[in-house]
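Input.
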Amino acid sequence: MKIKSMLTLFCCAAVGMTLLSGCGKAETEKNNENGGNKDMTHLTATKEYVKQIGRTYMIDDTLWMALSGTGIEFEYTGKNLTLELEGDGAAFPGIGDNQARYAVFVDGERVADDVLTEREKSVTVLESDTKKSVTVKFVKLSECAMSTIGIKGIDLGEGGSAKPTAQKAHRIEFIGDSITCGYGVDDEDESHHFKTATEDCTLAYAYKTAQLLDADYSLFSVSGYGIISGYTADGKTKIPQQTIPQYYGSLGFSYQGFKGSEMPQNIDWDFSKYQPELVVINLGTNDDSYCLGQSERMDEYSAEYVNFLKTVREKNPDAQILCTVGIMGQRIFPAIEMAVYTYKKETGDEKISSFMFDAQKPEDGLVADYHPTAVTHDKAAAALTEEIKKIMNW
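Output.
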């Protein structure tokens, strides 16, 4: 859910977005996915050398990422490895709490964790006197709305090599809001507000579920967003501009552009690049702040949920769909059940079901703006994993 301070930020930033919105949709990526690597000690993060995670986008040899959890993974052999990063308009020190947060993992161990406050930065991943073979993973920890980040190059060092890690046996897409983003999970004071520096999708239920199932993942999530309304503090004002369905066909939504001008929301996503076996939708927590259990609003939410399900099915024709909610409140779940029932009746599509999470418990604590702790996310991931195993026979 989104809080008052974020509402103010979004409104102010929307002016800047409007000025930039005339850029239009990019028709093609600016660099061939397997080209541009003449110097084999300095590579571009193309599919020839890395596994691209989530909805990424190549512009002039820089691989750009907006959504939570986007990144790359590869097998590296060598002595000295460096990643060259590129920032966006938020990548300056002292301008707020919105810079992109990222992490680098080597053989599963987090070796770097920082926010990008420079337009260009080199991150040393490995320094060794002897040649080693390791698995390297770069993950954008923070969400798309506030900032984006690019991988400008991979410096292998003399004699170094890189190849993409293997695709996993299963593929999942998660569609959600702040809970999926890992909002505030690193800030154990519930009275504190949003900062990208305390947001970490790898500590949230979706990423953890993928790990438990040893599945590849893609996240499409924005804090405060819903199906018919974003989070509203007064329970009266509907906020339709903060909804996931309008952006689902794109690379996300951000107030910052790739290379400063190409906005993720204006770039169509090619769904053929990643066809999940399962789509998990966790949307409704923010809608609930507007619906408040009122029948007319719940019916509107349910009807628009059905429409969104039809879009999800169009883009993912073979996937099972699992509709969830409940970690930060269960009141809206009956409207989700109604949406699933109506969708099945209208389409005859039986590859869909619903699942309600347990609500977060006081004894498990709260983090910024009353969001779930890592303990709560662990419990949610365990429960979701069991449900997925049951419906998918994994």
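Confidence is low (pLDDT under 50) at residues 1-38.
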